[in-house]
Amino acid sequence: MFHVKRDEFTRFFHETIGDQLVEDTVEKLWVHCATLQEWAPTFNLVGVQNGVELLESIYWDSVKTSILLATSLSHCREIHDVGSGAGFPGLILPLFLDSAAHITLHEPRRKRASFLKTTSREMSLSNVTVEQDRVIPGAFSCDAVTSRATLSPVAWLKLAFSLVSAEGLIVVYGTDRSITDNDCIPQGLTCVQTHCYTLPYSRRARSVSLFKRMPVPCSVV
Fold it and tell me: Is residue 176 within 8 Å of residue 167, measured between CB atoms?
């Protein structure tokens, strides 16, 4: 079972992220972590065994990718996170985006949806909505979609293609750059950005990619 103290949490981010995080952001991250630890004994929200793994593989990874994606998603006003679970990255990403961006979290499991609603309220995230539902193809049309550890990258791209508007963005998380292989990318999508990085302690490889849904060419009459 993991347990992380507030000073340990704050020190970790100051050492590994530094001045890229303002104090208010660190405070809201801690509110999430404290709430997660309150719920964890009763509900299995994350699959980690200790505090170090929680900090590095869950929190640091979500913060790092949110920082990497912030500029590219800055123009997006409607973002959806599919299969939000414990809110990684759905409750972390809003901390790095303009307040005009609205983020909808989709989580089919009732207890996890309750956790998301409670935690978003505790974090004072007024631009976040939680929906207890299972997303099906074409369920909505938005500027950008994210999902982590819900489907395989290829399966996620196929579903996400039906959820974004023309020139909409799809976020794909992974451990390498294999998803950029053209054989794996559904027709109508193109990879516009890939960031590769390593976790600070274990040095495990991670990546986050952005795919764009290309507009359908106009037919010539």
Answer: no
pLDDT digits (tens, 9 = 90+) for 17-40: 988 899 999 999 999 999 999 998
* pTM, two decimal places: 0.93
Percent helix / strand / coil, the chain, rounded to 5:
40, 20, 40
Which domains, ranges and CATH numbers included, belong to the chain? Answer: 56-213 (3.40.50.150)
Do the Cβ atoms of 46 and 54 come closer than 8 Å? yes
Query: Burial, 209: exposed, middle or buried (Cβ in 10 Å; 0-12, 13-18, 19+)?
Result: buried
Residue ranges of E strands in 49-141: 78-82, 102-106, 128-131
For residue 164, give the nearest of 180, 186, 149, 184 by alpha carbon.
Answer: 186
CA atoms of 207 and 153, how far apart (whole Å):
12
